[in-house]
């Protein structure tokens, strides 16, 4: 799982109230029926940060432990504008594959 | 063409049999040599124009045309195809394939002529869809060949593709918006709208492309792009296609830093950590500032990769690539984690101490969190110390070989770490609990009580701490306090039978104390309340207590009535007499009562033993031993009951009785009776894990000097196998496994210790060390280990078991 602060879009020094407000805001947007995976990630992140002790334990012992290069690459690609593939090339791909 | 003619002449020069030609044709078709197969099939059709030979010719022609089309030789492909059209076999599949090839080649008229011969509706539907696909691939010239009802929609698709080529995604999206889902052009709508979403990085792209018909051209076009969004889809393709799509994906994102990041991922997957660090460092340096958050994530991910898989050289390499992270400015935590993953807990502790200092000095955490962060680190260090030297339960401590009394090689023992953690953040519950459990496990009773008192200052209703205090008060005879503490503990878990039965026991003790103080009404009220809650079969012990209270109060008749009731409800009079005798001594009653009861008890014990009596008498003694109760005459009673049990070995006993006896006898694990009953139980009920386990407890109790280690191991293995086979014994199985682990570790440490002491005089590892390693990994080297029951405790064992094992292995080596 990526960093819970990243999932919730929060700074490391966020307060209890800020974390809770952000969580409620996100779960209203990403409801379980519309975005079940995103919702689960938000819940998991919130569980790690909701309690000051578990939050501190996360920061001292686990920060970034479950992140992966795959996830970072996927996020990077999602944020980068994609190069356009020429239509002729796409059609050539179609001709080649059938 | 000249070569083909020459080949034709060569092949036709020598007349061949039809059978041989058929064989050759089939072989050529099978290996995909379509040109050769076509020549042979043509020859066959000339000589014998059967339906099968025509089919072969059509197949070979189609195969050749596909080859030519794939090579871009469209005109030649169509020329070849047209030769097959007139003589084409009537097989629906071949007709459809032929029509498909013609459509893809753009020969609409011939294709439509063939399609007219297709009667299967499903095949025809597919051909119409392919017709649309082929027209889109060829562009406007093919539009006229389409049926009027799809012509307009196909024209929209062509217009939308033109908009896409110009970069006008909005117009492309809108142009195909009206195409209905029943139209054969619907897949093209999905492709085009998916492309516009893909370029806008919208999640809709994947949803749209997942709806595409797999055998249609739009699905083939979308596939490499879909694989970028859905890794599982890409991974399900053949490796060659995966590689092609990966290259395609890299062209979509050609930023140099992303390529380096991709390289780093590959290198990490191949466990080439130094190279992965270098590439990731290059990627991080080239990353634009707006990707600062990705930079941090990358640094942290590699941080953990170094901690888990790196070696000492990777830490400076990490520092060079990323610098020290703000939350570990000296990289002491990285080093600590690295040692932890390598299993060097002592070195890890040293680094954690330095990290705790860094946190204070470098402001890694805010001042408000500083103490708690320190407490967390010290708690973690305590856990490491426990991993390095598992804390043995008090009852197993005597199994340690004398030279291994102090195996703790961590600079900070677990108890000290937990104490420091509590001192830093007394509001942090986990530190208290760890300390409490550690001291409880190791049997440090006084320290446990102190820790429990301190814990209750911060967490007043902590159930475990209340239990500890209740137990302590009971042991000191402060029954009021014991009951009060236990009642508070029960409030937290009212359905916990262990807690409630303890509470009941304390209340019974309180009733006795009230009677001793002359408060008979209070004692009666407590006992009445307990009697109402007790099950019928166990009421006799409360009735005995009530009888004792009445006798103490001078109500002789009532006392005797109650005792008579107790005798009726007890498993036997002997059991009731024993319970009453204990109450008469503990109350105490007038000596004539105890003398009379003692006489009757001894007389009863001389009679022929029975299983229920043996179980009930031993059960009472077991309860006293477990709870730490003592009274005048207990040792003598214990001896008498154990003698009675010895005689009970010869009477019939049920499985449950044997099991109960073995469980209770573990309160005196070094008594040979435990092994005797375990042996009998194992012989009569070989499926029951309790018996080999009881035997193991006996062997263990003999201590390091006398324990027959091979028999102990075999008994434990047997017990574990039986317990694992029966779901009712899951807890026992876990307990046995834990015990095995501790024993293996101790034995290995013992042998290592011995080896290290003589290292300078020996060139090779001694066989006993190899033996210990074999034991640790479950390799059986001893042939005689199966006879775990055949053991005489009185046999002379001059050498400690570790030495015995060495001697035996030495013998085998010779």
Describe the SSE topology.
The complex is a heterodimer of chains A (98) and B (814).
Chain A: H1 4-8, H2 16-29, H3 36-49, H4 52-62, H5 69-79, H6 87-97
Chain B: H1 2-13, H2 18-31, H3 34-47, H4 51-70, H5 74-86, H6 92-105, H7 108-115, H8 121-138, H9 148-166, H10 169-175, H11 186-199, H12 204-209, H13 217-229, H14 231-235, H15 239-252, H16 256-269, H17 273-286, H18 292-309, H19 314-322, H20 332-341, H21 345-361, H22 367-388, H23 414-424, H24 429-441, H25 445-458, H26 463-475, H27 479-492, H28 497-516, H29 520-533, H30 539-552, H31 556-569, H32 573-586, H33 591-606, H34 611-627, H35 634-648, H36 655-665, H37 672-684, H38 690-701, H39 709-725, H40 730-757, H41 767-776, H42 801-813
Notes on the structure:
The complex is a heterodimer of chains A (98) and B (814). Chain A is mainly α and 98 residues long. Chain A has a single domain (4-97), classed as DnaJ domain (Helix Hairpins), CATH 1.10.287. Chain A has helices at residues 4-8, 16-29, 36-49, 52-62, 69-79, 87-97. In chain A, 20% of the residues are buried. With 814 residues, chain B is an all-alpha fold. Chain B contains 42 helices and no strands. In chain B, helix 26 packs antiparallel against helix 27. Classes of the chains: A mainly alpha (98), B mainly alpha (814). At the A-B interface, helix 4, helix 5 and helix 6 of A face helix 8, helix 9, helix 11, helix 13 and helix 16 of B.
